[in-house]
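Would you mind giving me a polypeptide sequence along with per-residue structure tokens?
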Amino acid sequence: MKIKVLWGFEGDPDKVKVNNGRVSAGEIIELDDEEYGHRLIGKGLAALDDGAAPKANKQSKPNETK
């Protein structure tokens, strides 16, 4: 799983494949552990690099009540 780091952080060196575990904003890293990648995305530290995430919110229509 390729992710783009939005905010610098200090992570698990084995999982982020960096000697000291420090990752800078703007880097694109490859993760083998998808659960770890999803946790980083969920915390707002990273985003998917392949553009699979929507770039803009879609406008929703209000529900009609009867």
